[in-house]
Structure formats: structure tokens, C-alpha cells
Amino acid sequence: MIWQLDIVLLVFIVICAVAAITVRDLLSAVIILGAYSFFMCLLWTEMGAVDVAFTEASVGAGIGTVLFIAAIARTARRSKD
Amino acid sequence: MLSRESDNLIVKTVVRIFVPFIQVYALYVIAHGHYSPGGGFQGGVILGASIVLLFLAYGRRQAMRRMGEGLTAFMNSTGVFIYGGIGLLCLLLGGNLLDYASLDRILHVGAAQSRSLGILGVEVGVGIAVMAAMISIFLDISTGGDLPDDDND
């Protein structure tokens, strides 16, 4: 474990997490969540949990993003209220 | 939006070239799952993602000709059947549930090798089930749960 790399990755993760819940556009939020998953995957790899990182990359960044986008495609652009 | 075919030639060509490579990689992940990172779940998710890519680029109607609802349900239950079948086979051969060493009585390759083959069979079953489940979840979310018939869509 390299603690400097850990700090850098953790800062990126916190930035992505805060951005994903504050941004107004749903599609942007999903893409930022994908970036969050990617940094999480890098952090798992760096900590030596390669199997968990593999799952995070395939499920979190891969199919999860697609499922969110499929759900967003069925919503309207503007809210009614 | 997700149900019709993309009219971008670049997207369709890239998907057509990439999907076989993604699927070969997924099969590699499944086949090497018992002694390297990866395994049935991750390989199954990657296999499912390659089919979902086909759905995104070629539209639901054209992709469902290759991977319809019936085939998805069949593969889902086939995967669970392989997993449970190997477990019950171990039970029938006198071992515990999923105790692959007892498979040696029909495989005749030694206890260690039959453990390796048994976990490989379970990984294949999990991979098939997860792939079908991922495609099914994507279909249900992108259509809202009711699949319209191909004629009146």
C-alpha cells in the first residue's frame, strides 16, 4: 500500500460522490457515479482486493451505469412541479 | 429511445467488431475463475454487458431475434439447474452438498482434479444464470416491464 496514492484516490472518490448527489441533471449524475465506481475500483486494486475491484469495474461502472441510463430514458426532461 | 436502432454507422460497426472480443474475454474470466481474480459472476456480467451493447446499438427488435425473452428465461433456469445439479450430484454420490471430491466416483481423475472440475462446472452455471439475469433486468427496466409485441411496436 502506498499511502500517498491512497490519499489522492480517496480525495477523487469524495469529490465524485459529492458531485453525484449535488448535480441537477440526472444523466450527469449517472456518469459521475460511473467515474466514482472507476476510482473505487482503482482503490480496491491498490489495496490488493483484485477480485472486489473486478466486480466493482464490471457491475458498478459497466452494467450499473447502463441500467441507470435505461431508467433515465423513461423519465421526462422537466419535472411537472 | 433505447428501443430503436441507432442510425450511426460508426457506433454499429464498432459494436459489431467489439462484441466477439468482449465475449471471448468473458469466457476467459469464467474459465480461469477458480485460480485467478474473476469467476462466474464477473464473467457472466461481462457476457450480459456484451449482449446489452447489442441491444443499445441495434435496437430491441433486431437484438431480440438473437436473444429473446424465452431464451433468456431458459438460460436463467439452466444456469441455476447446472449449479444445483452439481451440488445434488455430490449429495447423491455420498458427499456433502457441493463437496466436489465425491465427483471422483464418476470422473475417475483423482480428488484434487475432480474438485477443480466441479468448481469449474459451478462457475459455468453461475455465469449462464447471471448473464441471462442481467439481460432480463435490462429488458424489464428499458421497457417498463411490458414487452410490446413486435408487430404493433
Structural class label of chain B: mainly alpha
Helix content of chain A: over 70%
Mean pLDDT of chain A: 91
Query: What does the average pLDDT of chain B come to?
Result: 88
C-alpha termini separation of chain B = 13 Å
Descriptive labels:
heterodimer, A: elongated, B: 153 residues, 5 helices, elongated
Structure described in brief:
By secondary structure, chain A is mostly helical. Helix content of chain A is 80%, strand content 0%. The chains are: A mainly alpha (81), B mainly alpha (153).
Structural notes for this entry:
The complex is a heterodimer of chains A (81) and B (153). Chain A is an all-alpha fold and 81 residues long. Chain A has one domain (3-74). Helices cover 80% and strands 0% of the residues of chain A. The model of chain A has no long low-confidence stretch (mean pLDDT 91). With 153 residues, chain B is mainly alpha-helical. Chain B has one domain (9-145). The mean pLDDT of chain B is 88. Classes of the chains: A mainly alpha (81), B mainly alpha (153). Chains A and B meet through helix 3 of A and helix 2 and helix 5 of B.
Fold topology:
The complex is a heterodimer of chains A (81) and B (153).
Chain A: H1 3-22, H2 26-47, H3 50-72
Chain B: H1 9-31, H2 40-64, H3 69-92, H4 104-107, H5 111-143
Helix pairs in contact in B: 1-2, 2-5, 3-5
